[in-house]
Amino acid sequence: MKLIKKGDGEAKSAKRHFAQSGITKVSPETGSQRLRVSVSHFLPDGGAEMYASSTERVYFGISGSLMVKGGKGDKYIVEPGDVLFIPPGEERSIETVENEPATMLVVVVNLD
């Protein structure tokens, strides 16, 4: 068992993201075998390119609004309290909504 305090974690920007910064709270580097948990902050006009990964993901909206677009044309607005589940291999992109910053909790599960 491990408590990660509010100010703890590793700050970094995620690959294929822009105008974004995050703080990784749980990862293999902190002792997790399959889980990565980060708090991701997006500036206005921030987001992520369309891409897919081999992991399961959950996006939990904390503040602001983010539009997540799927590779098949589907669109979801993630707002505070919303949860979006993304299965492995599914493409998605992210963008902020209405020129406002947004923050979400990102949970990634490595299936390998």
Short structural summary:
With 112 residues, the protein is mainly beta. Helices cover 0% and strands 57% of the residues.
Give the overall shape: globular
Low-confidence stretches: none
Q: Main beta sheet, described?
A: 9 strands, antiparallel
Q: What's the gyration radius in Å?
A: 14 Å
| The CATH architecture | Sandwich
* The CATH C-level class name: Mainly Beta
Strand fraction band? over 45%
Termini separation: 23 Å
Helix vs. strand class: mainly beta
Could you state the order of secondary-structure elements as H and E?
EEEEEEEEE
* CATH superfamily (homologous) name: Jelly Rolls
The overall average pLDDT, rounded, is 95
Chain-wise SSE layout:
Elements (H helix, E strand, L loop, with lengths): L9 E3 L4 E10 L8 E17 L4 E8 L2 E5 L4 E4 L4 E4 L5 E5 L5 E8 L3
Antiparallel strand pairs: 1-2, 2-3, 3-8, 3-9, 4-7, 4-9, 5-6, 5-8
Describe this structure in words.
- The chain is 0% helix and 57% strand.
- The model has no long low-confidence stretch (mean pLDDT 95).
- The protein has 112 residues and is mainly beta.
List keywords for this structure.
112 residues, mainly beta, Jelly Rolls, nine-stranded antiparallel beta sheet, 9 strands
